[in-house]
Amino acid sequence: MFEVLVFVYENYWQGDACPEPPQLKRKLNAVGFAEDKVQEALTWLTALNLAANECTLARNQAPKASPASLRVYSVHEQDHLGADCLAYIGFLETAGYLDALQREIVLERAMAACQEPELSIDDLRIIVLMVYWSLGIEPDALLLDELCEDSRGRLAH
User: Fold this and answer.
1) pTM for the full model?
2) Ramachandran region of residue 71, left (φ > 0), alpha (ψ -120 to 50) or beta?
3) How far apart are CA 145 and CA 130, in angstroms?
């Protein structure tokens, strides 16, 4: 599914340029993606768009969350996301790249996408990128570099 999401982002990086699901499905099938992966990605994207719309409504109606607020992760979230992904989300929050509403969308979509025992950092980066895309936010150069970097080739110093 993540290969499909990357293709959608790369080809429709301006979210409003993305075709409606039936046309997008035909395009993805024509490019050669497997039917089950296309359907999985479209279902995931539909839920993402609903969450993004709710986020926009919530921003207009609710007061801002306190920067001192604390998010407690459930055991289920801890098991499926793992320490690395949760630490990465914390890093993005601390750096000011995710606010509380965006974090909740990332978490919800990560839990929906998690089919392995634990989600990988690379998959989480794609999810964060897609959340930005769905909200119509273009990440700055530093964040884009961070989200598009492949951690498998990185050496710790």
Assistant:
1) 0.84
2) beta
3) 15
